[in-house]
Amino acid sequence: xxxxAFMFPGQGAQKAGMGLDFYKxxxxxxxxxxxxxxxxxxxxxxxxxxxxxxxxxxxxxxAAMVTTSMxxxxxxxxxxxxxxxxxxxxxxxxxxxxxxGAISLQDAIxxxxxxxxxxxxxxxxxxxxxxxxxxxxxxxxxxxxEPIAKVSIANYNxxxxxxITGMRQALDAAMEALKAAGAKxxxxxxxxxxxxxxxxxxxxxxxxxxxxxxxLKSLNIPYVTNVTGEAxxxxxxxxxxxxxxxxxxxxxxxxxxxxxxEGVDTFVEIGPGRTLTGFMKKINRDVTVYNxxxxxxxxxxLKKTGAGA
Length: 309
What we know:
Blueprint: E1 3-8, H1 20-25, H2 27-40, H3 44-49, H4 58-78, E2 85-88, H5 92-100, H6 105-122, E3 128-134, H7 138-145, E4 151-158, E5 161-167, H8 168-180, E6 185-188, H9 201-211, E7 223-224, E8 231-232, H10 238-245, H11 252-261, E9 264-270, H12 275-283, E10 288-292, H13 295-305
Parallel strand pairs: 1-2, 1-9, 2-7, 9-10
Antiparallel strand pairs: 3-5, 3-6, 4-5, 7-8
Helix pairs in contact: 2-4, 2-6, 4-5, 4-6, 5-6, 6-9, 9-10
């Protein structure tokens, strides 16, 4: 086996009940949910485990996702499976940095809670949105969007799946132009704003001010930033990259391709859903990909990798 990458999903993968079996079975996972509840002053267990309206609201989603993914990650490492490098999609990048050792769990969870609030406040609800463009090359999409102001690419997810973001009228115009140009499908996403667009630049500046209070520690392993798709080894870059990330395109495909070029041949998606696993199938089918969403998934992966044996 070559190098192992841990990867963490972003907003949209959340679901009621996520992490519950880890909570029930492992004391270390319970500890993270209990601490997150204390740090945030709200019942994170109820938010993650019970059906509720808040889980899909950005200001709550982000803290719930990071708490859940990190509770799973701690248990995975306790079983002897360790990464050589980490990456996360959008808010998942905070899990990647915490796993790599540069930010404390408390700072990761508290900061994404603030990040979620800033993103919700950045643009009034209904004034912006996002859409997935399927079956069209990224370069063609960039050309079509060029003359349309206030719309841009938000995510380079994988070949054949690009997400665009922008203000309402511009997004509608872009969606029609892309359909007319031959996109297989253009699907509007259920989100509360034009995330990863220039409209979030002010939120990025406010986030930078919040990050000033966060103490960074040395990285134990590198992580890959969404902003450039490249590995980060110098903690002096982290805060500026996180502030930029909120309004920059997520270069996920480039991140994965760069990790593979550096010798990663095994990827482990940690958290609810199988979004990143799905992207991997379109980016490179020659690497091994595991998905850990449940305790049963963990046990299966441990058997296959021989970790902790």
